[in-house]
Amino acid sequence: MVLPVCRALEEALISLVPSTVPPPPVDEVDALLQADEIGCFHLKHGFSCELDPSKQDWVKQLLQPSWRPDDTGPLHPDSCCCFQDITHLGESTAWCVSHYDFCKVPSATVGAVGFSCTDLSKNNPNSSSKVDSLGQDDGTGSTYKTFWGMISWVEQCRPSAVILENVDAIADESKDTGQSNLDTVVAELSCRGYEVQPVLVDCQEYGLPQRRKRVYFLGIRAADPIYDFCRCGMRDSFQVFVSMMQRCKLDPCNLQDVLLVDGSALLERAKASATTECKTAARDKTWTQLHMSFYRDHKLQWGRLPPCSFASSLWWSAVPRREQDIYHATEQLCRRSKRPLPICQDGSQNIFRAPTSGRHMCSDAQEIIISPCVLPGSNFFLFNKTQQRYITGEEKMVLQGWPTRHELYADLVARTDDKVLHSLAGNAFSSTVAMAMVFSWLASMPFARDHSQAKTTDHDVTAALGALKRLNGASDCSTNRDA
Questions:
Q1: N or C: which end of the chain has fewer CB within 10 A?
Q2: C-alpha dihedral, 266 to 271 to 277 to 278, nearest 10°
Q3: Domains detected in the chain
Q4: Other Cβ atoms closer than 10 A to 384
């Protein structure tokens, strides 16, 4: 049975794409589900888990908008929990920073977890030695610890479905064993009663102007009474799920459409922060030899390049010398080959791999600009003729599909330090992909009739998929809010 979620899909997915149209909060998407008479399903936040104190403050302000980081007391007793350490979620209680107490660890119908990618990311020079590291009982590394913390919660609370996310390198196979960390994720969930469907997605195919490949996993607890696989088998249901994920794809907007305009308060705040604190990295002490090698390979003369056209920018003094050299070399290589400059470049990585903005071919053959992958430590410098500056943390949040410009979140963003926003964006799920995962799960699984009375017709399926093609004319969102 495929649930008729066409209107909720249209409102949730389309309006999360960065644009001038404010997107609906999660509780309004829930109202749309109810309006489509899927009365047994409600989108409701159950709990969070975050180790970083600055991100804990962000979560707590989402849970209780009146709370402020300088408040010394806990959140309201009815507020959702924000647990501190995922490695303790397999226990009956865990420390909760929302209530400053040990609270009961709840279950959930759907658990959405992004465990650490530190030991898997290709940006980590030691990541090659971590292939198949999840299956090694060494107990070290943040990826290993957060993964097994997630597994302990799944084993204890047995959610009906789990949605996991990590970098695409999780699928890399070990040369010695032929196994990958992806194999370990599937195996560990399988031995706990879950059937697992991994999908490789790129958020530029889901409405966001960013190049970001990630592996998502949908785990279904086969014995959960919410499902009735006698009517439709697991294999067929997963085929529908994969098909729905494919059909949920949306063309992205242009990177330049999400940039703040000169004079905006958020941009002025980021500029003030950048000019007083020069961004540095530990590897700055040894970067010169690597850069000299790059210059030799590309037949550039070290120290003899023409003046950089960005040097007059008010932001240039805040750019570390190592990054200045990367951007300078990029400009000279583009001049020599008579190619236009990219819109932006990530100078946080070494000069041989510093990624630039790219181009995406839309379904209507229109070519638009997309950013490199947003990472916690990435520094995107804009080469625009009118704007030569760093992309702000708030702009990166928008690149991840966060509704930071919605009136419900504008105050929270305004009082959050830009460095915190950079970190939040780098570690976040891409919201449109996460929403597509949730709705594709709803639309593909054979829910037991005791749990869903929705009647499905071919028209429902056609309408649900066709709605994703209509980027304009979305109906007004419900204003009824419960949370």
A1: C
A2: 130
A3: 1-37+157-254+405-483 (3.40.50), 261-391 (no CATH)
A4: 12
Euclidean distance between CA atoms 49 and 52, whole angstroms: 10
DSSP summary character for residue 38: -
- How large is the average pLDDT for residues 262-278? 79
Each as own residue / partner, the long-range contacts of residues 68-76 (CB below 8 Å, 24 or more positions apart, any chain) are 74/98, 74/99, 74/100, 74/101, 75/99
pLDDT tens digit sequence for 204-224: 999 999 999 999 999 999 999
Q: Kind of pairing, strands 213-221 and 194-202? A: antiparallel
Residue 345 phi, psi dihedral angles, 5° rounding? -145, 145
Residue 77: which residues within 8 A CB-CB, separation 6 or more? 99
Strands (DSSP E) found in 274-433 = 344-346, 358-361, 367-370, 380-382
Residue closest to 170 by CA, chosen among 219, 220, 217, 231: 217
The helix/strand/coil state of 129 is: helix
From CA 222, how far away is CA 207, in angstroms rounded?
Answer: 32
Prediction pTM value: 0.85
Mean pLDDT (whole number) for 246-252: 89
Would you state the structure tokens that stand for residue 38, as one six-digit string? 């899927």
Tokens representing 355 are 């990624």
Asked whether 185 and 196 are in contact (CB, 8 A), the reply is yes
Q: Which of 409, 358, 400, 382 is nearest to 259 (CA)?
A: 382
| Closest alpha carbon to 405 in 258, 287, 210, 286 | 258
| Residue for token pair 């066409």 | 6
